[in-house]
């Protein structure tokens, strides 16, 4: 495709996404009218694809100058990246398939604009700001973090007294994790796996590692597709929940022998290791929908392999002697590196939260540390989403409110 055709394609994807993101549209309209981000510079490292692009243009509509790069070397859609770069007050440095050096150079280029506010997905910008670019910290008003793992990293920094800025844990908004992590990952992980493999899920043993918000979604949709779902966990309560939701629960060492498709969603490393690869059935398919490329031990798999070959676009087969193991998208996020990411209607809520939190940071002086998304913003997003879906709900009467909050007439 020529550059012009790529830009057209990127614009078309953005139009489609924008038309399915009604809550973000409400926020954008307010931003256009009130320009709450006038004079602000926003630096972002997120998955550069169409829904993210709609967030970027929303921030620009609010008066911000925005620089963005990717947060995963395989999730950038180059057509969207180019289309974004044609917009006023927006620079985009993301490119698909970059090596590690170029990936981190692009993070530096985002920081070169001297952002007032950052938005991360996995805390890459914040990590750089606290290591090689500490000179920029005094300028920062605050940041937003999109994902569970990023929030974990920030809490770890805060605990050690290492966090020198305010960050809002956008992931922890109810209108984010309950929908994005669960229904978003549940649908988009299977979309990525199915469009890449073109194989049947019904009747297969599917192993889901981790029964957090992502794992619940992935297990639920696997079950809906007719799979026999096996869950692995380390948390006894979540393991029990998985059992009562109707799935088999066992150790990975046992699940590895049975699984035909494996999906990791733990946010942890070394979930599938050499010990497991050696006992997997011939032809097993591995996908990660959790964290970076560390959940599947790709190095161990490569060193076990007698040979490797690409067997289908985005699927690499590792022949480990007598059995072949297929890995989708190099063990990186399957929904983004082998698909288009979460559905637009879900990212609508995640990114409405992001835009509202960026405004909140611009308008309020927050102390250093990890902050919750203000409840009124979270509730606003839920209300606007219901409204956009044409759903109305009941309201408490005064008598009910009194009954629920008093103790005299509680029984
Ligand atoms: N693919 C996506 O688009 C997407 C969307 C949202 C979040 N994420 C990422 O997915 C990961 C999970 O997010 P979440 O919100 O579900 O987190 P979560 O904390 O709700 O769930 C993770 C679960 O994994 C379990 N776990 C940890 N180590 C384990 C191990 N060794 N074996 C088995 N289970 C283990 C934990 O006990 C927990 O229940 C994070 O890295 C997050 O950043 C990805
Ligand atoms: N950056 C890391 C961390 C996981 S990304 C997980 C986050 O991606 C976000 N996400 C999922 N789908 C999309 C999408 O289509 N566009 C932008 N972000 C997305 C989602 O909100 C989730 O919290 C990595 O690449 O491995």
TrEMBL record:
How is this protein named in the record? S-inosyl-L-homocysteine hydrolase
What's the superkingdom here? Archaea
Specify the enzyme's EC class, one word.
Answer: hydrolase
Catalytic activity from the UniProt record: S-inosyl-L-homocysteine + H2O = L-homocysteine + inosine
Q: Taxonomic lineage per UniProt?
A: Archaea, Methanobacteriati, Methanobacteriota, Stenosarchaea group, Methanomicrobia
User: InterPro entries this protein is in?
Assistant: Adenosylhomocyst_ase-like_sf, Adenosylhomocysteinase-like, Ado_hCys_hydrolase_NAD-bd, NAD(P)-bd_dom_sf, S-Ado-L-homoCys_hydrolase_CS
Tell me, in one coarse class, where this protein mainly resides: cytoplasm
Question: SUPFAM superfamilies per the record?
Answer: Formate/glycerate dehydrogenase catalytic domain-like, NAD(P)-binding Rossmann-fold domains
Additional record remark: SAH is a product of SAM methyltransferases and is known to be a feedback inhibitor of these enzymes. As a result of this inhibition, organisms have evolved efficient enzymes to metabolize SAH via different pathways. The pathway found in methanogens differs from the canonical pathway, it uses the deamination of S-adenosyl-L-homocysteine to form S-inosyl-L-homocysteine for the regeneration of SAM from S-adenosyl-L-homocysteine.
- Determine if Hydrolase is one of this entry's keywords: yes
Listed under GO cellular component are: cytosol
Native source organism of the sequence: Methanosarcina vacuolata Z-761
**Where in this chain does the entry annotate a coiled-coil region?**
none
> What positions does the entry give for substrate binding?
121, 146, 176, 180
Q: What does this protein do?
A: Catalyzes the hydrolysis of S-inosyl-L-homocysteine (SIH) to L-homocysteine (Hcy) and inosine. Likely functions in a S-adenosyl-L-methionine (SAM) recycling pathway from S-adenosyl-L-homocysteine (SAH) produced from SAM-dependent methylation reactions. Can also catalyze the reverse reaction in vitro, i.e. the synthesis of SIH from Hcy and inosine.
């Amino acid at each position: 495709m020529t550059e012009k055709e790529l830009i057209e394609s990127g614009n078309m994807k953005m139009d489609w996404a924008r038309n399915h993101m009604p809550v973000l549209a409400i926020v954008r309209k307010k931003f256009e009218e009130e320009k709450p981000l006038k004079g602000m510079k926003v630096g972002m490292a997120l998955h550069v694809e169409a829904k993210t692009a709609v967030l970027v243009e929303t921030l620009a509509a609010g008066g911000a100058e925005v620089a963005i790069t990717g947060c995963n070397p395989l999730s950038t859609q180059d057509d969207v990246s180019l289309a974004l770069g044609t917009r006023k007050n927006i620079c985009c440095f993301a490119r698909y398939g970059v090596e590690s050096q170029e990936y981190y150079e692009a993070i530096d280029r985002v920081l070169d604009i001297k952002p007032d506010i950052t938005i991360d997905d996995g805390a890459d910008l914040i990590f750089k700001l606290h290591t090689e670019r500490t000179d920029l910290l005094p300028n920062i008003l605050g940041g937003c973090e999109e994902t569970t793992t990023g929030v974990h990293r920030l809490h770890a920094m805060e605990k050690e007294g290492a966090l020198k800025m305010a960050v809002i844990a956008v992931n922890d908004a109810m209108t984010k994790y309950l929908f994005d992590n669960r229904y978003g990952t549940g649908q988009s992980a299977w979309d990525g796996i199915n469009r890449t493999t073109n194989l049947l899920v019904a009747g297969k043993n599917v192993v889901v590692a981790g029964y957090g918000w992502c794992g619940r979604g992935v297990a639920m949709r696997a079950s809906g597709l007719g799979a026999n779902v096996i869950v692995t966990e380390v948390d006894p309560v979540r393991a029990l929940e998985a059992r009562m939701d109707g799935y088999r629960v066992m150790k990975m060492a046992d699940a590895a022998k049975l699984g035909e498709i494996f999906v990791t969603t733990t946010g942890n490393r070394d979930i599938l290791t050499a010990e497991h690869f050696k006992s997997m059935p011939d032809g097993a398919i591995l996908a990660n929908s959790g964290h970076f490329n560390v959940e599947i031990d790709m190095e161990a798999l490569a060193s076990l392999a007698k040979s490797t070959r690409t067997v289908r676009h985005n699927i690499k087969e590792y022949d480990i002697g007598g059995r072949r193991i297929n890995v989708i998208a190099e063990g990186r996020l399957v929904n983004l590196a082998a698909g288009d990411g979460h559905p637009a209607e879900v990212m609508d809520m995640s990114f409405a939260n992001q835009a509202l939190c960026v405004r909140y940071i611009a308008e309020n002086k927050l102390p250093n540390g990890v902050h919750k998304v203000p409840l009124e913003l979270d509730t606003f997003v839920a209300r606007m989403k219901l409204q956009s879906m044409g759903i109305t709900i009941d309201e408490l009467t005064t008598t009910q409110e009194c009954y629920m909050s008093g103790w005299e007439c509680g029984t």
